[in-house]
Write a structure and sequence with these properties.
- The termini are far apart.
- The strands form five sheets. The chain has an eight-stranded parallel β-barrel, surrounded by five helices. Strands 1-9-6-11-3-2 form a six-stranded antiparallel β-sheet.
- The chain has helices at residues 2-20, 182-197, 241-248, 262-265, 275-286, 306-309, 313-331, 349-354, 358-369, 393-405, 427-438, 457-470, 502-514, and strands spanning 33-34, 66-71, 77-82, 89-90, 94-98, 102-112, 116-124, 130-139, 143-152, 156-164, 170-181, 198-206, 217-225, 229-233, 253-256, 290-298, 337-342, 374-379, 414-418, 421-422, 444-451, 474-479, 520-522, 528-534, 536-543, 551-557, 566-571.
- It is built from 13 helices and 27 strands.
- The protein is α/β, with parallel strands linked by helices.
């Protein structure tokens, strides 16, 4: 038995060493089209001859086309496949060996011979399935980075290639495919999470005379976590105390499911009613719950009221501006954010009638009425579906650049809103897409997280939430799991008695994990104690025999300091 214990301990030690010594995930991404590609991430990973310095060694050429290795004026080598007018166009491909239960991070730099086209990365997995691993907009004359990925659930040979549904020549360079075991991925994500969400804090307790209080007891109470984690809210909360208690005990931010939308507040032209939204906002504020304004306008024609669809361009512009002024002015300073033109890439109701600058202009007008709020472009499938060509990360980035480059929009407080309605998440692709959007240099939020039902719903939800919380550029998460007595939109966290369902257990587990902190500690001889704390608002209470009464200090722990530790000097 003793030998078995020692052996198990040794195996555990080796597994820990394997995780610790793994290649670290690289968040590098780019949305720019540049003259020369960057070097391949991870030195190419398991890709052979990733920079084509060895001609086409390791690569295969599609049947019926010609391939060559070209050299740019700067001396950079790349593979070029001459499509000869074929449609779809294919790049060179490479076969690799994949391992079961392994995430693969993919990146490559791409260029086409003419025009601007969508190019997708496809992996023929070991089980024979063709898996979409990513896609981007590629231009002639410059190189664009594709970043994506996929997960292998079986071992065996696989093949990676790129293709475009257009008659173009595809040029490829700096290809990389890096494997991460599930254990490596999880361990590294945990370390990244700690770096993003915690800070080292040195608390120094001193008496009224300024001398250190050795062996003082410092107790900590987390009054409010800094990371906004919330859920959609419905009007049913207004007359259901159990719903109110359940919501307020968990979430620090809310999005009203429908109650602030145009079709809820002005069913009849000129007759506005904000009564329900006002009451919900008052309830949220009583509990210290921040509210996102959802939404000012929606670009989907199917969501427009019949009277709005009948308007000519002049009258639609006037009605949209009245709506904007009404809702934004009413709630200015009371909401933390606005989804300005909802789902602005999938749909184009406003642009088709008011011109291509309709959305950027509306962002400017919202900012003029509520300068404090963050303005979101809220979209779905950018993280969820690699093959939804309408909302590729590079297309999202391009629209955001259009918004902030519009005259008068240079100083807007903008953010990326990613709805995150998942079925079976492609976790490496999700992270890669967040990396790409992080290159914009503005905050990312997951704004409407849910996962379709099924045996894996709870496990998938946990992975999605952990990925969002663990990404350094994500600054908030809101789920789309609003409770309805008649049933939820896609995902219910509880039953009608507010007892957790499996996905509700996941949420409670993560809230507990993300707010866990040291409850009490003793100072050393210098009156100091070092703590590693999750970001948030704390009440630090110091007790010591020399003090007549405990001393309480409110302290914000955050990442605002670049120092390796935060020093908090508590004096009686």
């Amino acid at each position: 038995m003793g030998i078995l214990v020692v052996l198990l301990l040794f195996i555990s030690f080796l597994e820990g060493m394997m995780v610790q010594s793994a290649v670290l995930y690289d968040h590098t991404a780019s949305t720019e089209c540049i003259s020369n590609p960057m070097k391949p991430l991870y030195g190419g990973g398991i890709i052979q001859n990733s920079e084509f310095n060895g001609d086409l060694t390791g690569w295969s050429v599609p049947w019926g086309v010609n391939a060559t290795v070209g050299t740019s004026p700067s001396g950079n080598k790349f593979a070029a496949v001459l499509g000869k007018g074929a449609r779809p166009s294919r790049s060179v491909s490479q076969k690799v060996q994949m391992l079961t239960n392994t995430h693969y991070s993919l990146s490559a730099w791409l260029q086409v011979s003419n025009g601007t086209v969508d190019v997708k990365a496809t992996v023929k997995a070991p089980n024979g399935a063709f898996v979409a691993a990513g896609a981007i907009v590629v231009k002639a004359g410059c190189w664009t980075m594709l970043k994506g990925g996929m997960t292998a659930y079986s071992s065996g040979p696989a093949e990676i290639f790129f293709e475009a549904d257009a008659a173009v020549d595809i040029m490829v360079d700096s290809v990389s495919l890096q494997p991460f075991t599930f254990a490596e991925w999880s361990a590294q994500r945990g370390a990244t999470t700690d770096r993003a969400r915690k800070s080292a804090v040195k608390v120094v307790a001193r008496g009224a005379d300024g001398r250190p209080l050795a062996n003082a007891t410092v107790t900590l109470d987390l009054a409010r976590a800094a990371f906004p984690f919330g859920n959609a809210m419905t009007s049913e909360i207004l007359d259901n105390p159990a719903y109110e208690r359940w919501f307020a005990s968990r979430f620090t931010v809310a999005t009203f499911e429908n109650e602030m939308k145009w079709y809820s507040t002005e069913r009849v032209p000129g007759q506005e009613d904000y009564g329900v939204a006002d009451a919900m906002l008052a309830l949220a504020r009583r509990h210290g719950i921040a509210v996102r304004g959802h939404n000012v306008l929606w670009d989907d024609e199917r969501t427009q009221m019949a009277w709005v669809r009948r308007l000519n361009a002049t009258d639609l512009r006037a009605a949209a501006e009245r709506r904007l002024r009404s809702v934004v002015a009413r709630y200015a300073g009371k909401v933390i954010a606005w989804d300005v033109v909802n789902e602005n890439l999938h749909w184009s109701f406003l642009e088709s009638r008011l011109g291509p600058d309709a959305s950027p202009r509306l962002y400017r007008e919202v900012a003029a009425l509520d300068a404090a709020a963050t303005l979101f472009m809220n979209e779905y499938n950018t993280l969820e579906q690699p093959m939804d060509m309408s909302v590729l990360p590079t297309k999202y980035a391009a629209r955001m650049e259009q918004i902030r480059s519009f005259p008068g929009n240079g100083g807007l407080k903008l953010a990326v809103g990613l709805e995150s309605h998942f079925t079976a998440p492609n976790i490496p692709y999700m992270r890669a897409s967040m990396d790409t959007l992080a290159a914009l240099g503005i905050p990312l939020w997951l704004t409407e997280v849910d996962v379709a039902g099924g045996s894996m719903q709870a496990a998938y939800l946990e992975e999605v939430l952990r990925e969002g919380y663990g990404h350094p550029s994500v600054q908030g998460i809101v789920m789309w799991a609003a409770w309805h007595a008649r049933g939820c939109y896609v995902m219910c966290l509880t039953d009608n008695g507010f007892k957790n369902l499996p996905v509700g257990d996941v949420v409670d587990k993560l809230i507990a994990e993300w707010t866990a902190h040291t409850k009490a500690a003793a100072t050393d001889q210098d009156g100091a104690v070092e703590l590693d704390l999750v970001h948030g608002e704390y009440n630090f209470t110091v007790t010591h025999p020399s003090l007549k009464a405990p001393v309480v200090h409110a302290v914000m722990v955050d990442a605002s300091s670049s120092a390796p530790e935060h020093v908090i000097d508590i004096k009686a």
